[in-house]
Design a protein that fits this description.
heterodimer; A: mainly beta; 7-stranded mixed beta sheet; 53% strand; globular; B: 112 residues; mainly beta; 6-stranded mixed beta sheet; 5-stranded antiparallel beta sheet
Chain lengths: 113, 112
C-alpha cells in the first residue's frame, strides 16, 4: 500500500509570490490534515479536511487556504508569500474524521527568499 | 499556551537499555494521544497511540502509558537500539477531529 505522497518536495519562491502544494493520501483514507513545521514554532496545525469539507482550521492568516477533491487528494495554497512562511509543510492522512492513527507524508520544504 | 509539553529537549541512553520519553498535557478534553518519531527534513513516522479509556498500549518494543489524573503520558522503548535515535513527538487530539496538538519534541540519542 503506497504511503502519503506530497509534491513538490522542495520549492523556492520569492516574497509576494503564491504557491500551491499537493498531497495524495493513502488509498481509502478520506481525511487529510496539513501542518507547518518551523524551528521556532514546532509543528502547528493548519487545516483538516474530510469528504471535501474543511472541518477545522488552525490559527493562520487568510493567506493560507486549502481544499480537498472528491478523490481525497488535497491542495494547500499560500498567497503573498512572506519570509516567515519558509517551513516544512506536512500532510497527514487518516481513515476517518476521528482516527487513532494518522500517517504523514515526507513534506514539502518551502523556502521564501 | 502550550497544551502539550515535552520538558526534556534531549535524552541519551545506552544501547540495550530502556528509553523513557515523557509528555504532559493540560487540556482534559484530549482523548487520543499519539507518539511519532521524526528525522530532519522528513515527515513524522507514526509509532503508537493510546485512547484515554486505556492506561497502557504495547506494540513490540514500544509501550505507551497514560496517567489521566496526572495528565501525563510516557513512551518506553525496550531495548533501545541505535536506529531509534531521532526526535520523538507526542501529540494529542480531542473531540470529533483529527487535529493534533504536538509537543516540542525530545531528541533521543542511543549510544552503541
Amino acid at each position: 500500500k503506497a504511503g502519503v505522497t506530497q509534491t513538490p518536495r522542495y520549492l523556492i519562491k520569492t516574497r509576494g509570490q503564491q504557491v500551491t502544494l499537493s498531497c495524495s493520501p493513502i488509498s481509502g483514507h478520506r481525511s487529510v490534515s496539513w501542518y507547518q513545521q518551523t524551528p521556532g514554532q514546532g509543528l502547528q496545525f493548519l487545516f483538516e479536511y474530510f469528504s471535501e469539507t474543511q472541518r477545522n482550521k488552525g490559527n493562520f492568516p487568510g493567506r493560507f487556504s486549502g481544499r480537498q477533491f472528491s478523490n481525497s487528494r488535497s491542495e494547500m495554497n499560500v498567497s503573498t508569500l512572506e519570509l516567515g512562511d519558509s517551513a516544512l509543510y506536512l500532510c497527514a492522512s487518516s481513515l476517518g474524521y476521528k482516527s487513532n492513527e494518522q500517517f504523514f507524508g515526507p513534506g514539502t520544504r518551502l523556502t521564501v527568499l | 499556551d502550550q497544551q502539550v509539553k515535552q520538558n526534556s529537549p534531549s535524552l541519551s541512553v545506552q544501547e540495550g537499555r530502556i528509553s523513557i520519553l515523557n509528555c504532559d498535557y493540560t487540556n482534559s478534553m484530549f482523548d487520543y494521544f499519539l507518539w511519532y518519531k521524526k528525522y530532519p527534513a522528513e515527515g513524522p513516522t507514526f509509532l503508537i497511540s493510546i485512547s484515554s479509556i486505556k492506561d497502557k498500549n504495547e506494540d513490540g518494543r514500544f509501550t505507551v502509558f497514560l496517567n489521566k489524573s496526572a495528565k501525563h503520558l510516557s513512551l518506553h522503548i525496550v531495548p533501545s537500539q541505535p536506529g531509534d535515535s531521532a526526535v520523538y513527538f507526542c501529540a494529542a487530539s480531542g473531540g470529533a477531529t483529527n487535529k493534533l496538538i504536538f509537543g516540542t519534541g525530545t531528541l533521543l540519542a542511543v549510544q552503541p
